[in-house]
């Protein structure tokens, strides 16, 4: 895989920056873009990616670029020989998406279409897409599997992911050259062991782990626990989490799979909930099933 170039959208964000570490350490070159909608900018420079360079001792080629700027995306694809893409860039706040549906549909759907067009025009057909467990909506059975029906989505953000998945399915049927894996994440948490990068959003935090971190940092007064009558040992809610570095290495595994198996067309994988060492299980399943 050494020498292959990966285009990482949303590379300055939480999952994107951790994934860049794993990609560089696996020998890939990284070209990353971000518009800093939810990541820290220092005069056009991505703070998290500077730290990624420090961790790995390797350079990241970075462009401040909005995926809605179709011409600029095309230009970057023309400037580099991109072998494959990991598409993280999206707006992702469930509550906000209900208030600003058009902004979410525009950013997530049009941004993805612009990206896919740039890929197609430069004969790049290998894509790992950041999907979400949101595509399932309220589960019909647990634990959820890849075969669980999707589409019964309860919020706008989740619907953008569902619509993109459907679009990717159609695309892969239209031309067998497309080789796409959608990864439906459940609750990534944690940080790189160096402590140099972590979850550092610029929008108001909503997810439980960054919220707890804000309280620990004295930025918020307290954590409120909602619900006390769930069927759990103490009645409060229980969720499964996946460590960010496991998720990052799962992306590298998915990318390697795309490059060694050219007729995948469209595959979906999840990290299995309610297990320990989830992504290890996930990667194993992934390699077995494909
Ligand atoms: P994040 O907000 O930290 O990272 C996303 C990055 O994309 C941000 O840096 C943002 O500035 C950038 N971005 C957004 N719109 C853009 C655009 N139009 N052009 C260029 N850059 C743009 O979020 P994250 O937690 O790293 O999530 C990454 C992906 O994983 C997202 O697609 C998200 O929907 C998905 N996901 C995240 C979680 C989670 O809990 N973190 C769970 C499931 C799925």
TrEMBL record:
**Keywords recorded for this protein, A-Z:** Carbohydrate metabolism, Galactose metabolism, Isomerase, NAD
Which InterPro entries does this one have? Epimerase_deHydtase, NAD(P)-bd_dom_sf, UDP_G4E
Membrane-crossing ranges are none
Give the EC class as a word. isomerase
Q: Name one Pfam family in it.
A: Epimerase
The reply to whether NAD figures as a keyword in the UniProt entry is: yes
Give the record's pathway.
Answer: Carbohydrate metabolism; galactose metabolism
Does the record bear Nucleus in its keywords?
A: no
EC number(s) on file: 5.1.3.2
**What reactions does this protein catalyze?**
UDP-N-acetyl-alpha-D-glucosamine = UDP-N-acetyl-alpha-D-galactosamine; UDP-alpha-D-glucose = UDP-alpha-D-galactose
Q: Which cofactor does it need?
A: NAD(+)
Q: Where is the NAD-dependent epimerase/dehydratase domain?
A: 6-260
Q: Which NCBIfam families match?
A: galE
Describe the subunit structure: Homodimer.
Family note: Belongs to the NAD(P)-dependent epimerase/dehydratase family.
Protein name in UniProt: UDP-glucose 4-epimerase
State the organism named in the record.
Orchesella dallaii
**Phylogenetic placement of the source organism:** Eukaryota, Metazoa, Ecdysozoa, Arthropoda, Hexapoda
């Amino acid at each position: 895989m050494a020498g292959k170039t990966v285009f990482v959208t949303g590379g300055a964000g939480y999952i994107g920056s951790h994934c860049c570490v794993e990609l560089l350490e696996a020998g890939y070159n990284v070209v990353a873009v971000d518009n800093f909608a939810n990541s820290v900018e220092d005069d056009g420079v991505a703070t998290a990616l500077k730290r990624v360079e420090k961790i790995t001792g390797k350079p990241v080629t970075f462009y401040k670029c909005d995926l809605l700027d179709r011409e600029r995306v095309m230009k970057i694809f023309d400037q580099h020989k991109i072998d494959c893409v990991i598409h993280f860039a999206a707006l992702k706040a469930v509550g906000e998406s209900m208030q600003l549906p058009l902004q979410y549909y525009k950013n997530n759907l049009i941004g993805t279409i612009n990206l896919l067009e740039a890929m197609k025009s430069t004969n790049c057909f290998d894509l790992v897409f950041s999907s979400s467990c949101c595509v399932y909506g309220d589960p019909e059975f647990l634990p959820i599997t890849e075969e669980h029906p999707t589409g019964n989505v309860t919020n706008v953000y989740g619907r953008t992911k569902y619509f993109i998945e459907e679009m990717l399915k159609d695309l892969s049927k239209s031309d067998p050259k497309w080789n796409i894996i959608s990864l439906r994440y459940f609750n990534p948490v944690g940080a790189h062991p160096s402590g140099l990068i972590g979850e550092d959003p610029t929008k108001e935090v909503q997810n439980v782990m960054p919220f707890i971190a804000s309280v620990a940092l004295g930025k918020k007064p307290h954590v409120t626990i909602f619900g006390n009558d769930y069927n759990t040992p103490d009645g409060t809610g229980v969720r499964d989490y996946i460590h960010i570095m496991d998720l990052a290495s799962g992306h590298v595994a998915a990318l390697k799979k795309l490059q060694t198996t050219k007729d995948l067309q469209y595959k979906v994988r999840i990290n299995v909930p309610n297990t320990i060492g989830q992504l290890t299980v996930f990667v194993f399943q992934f390699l077995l099933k494909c």
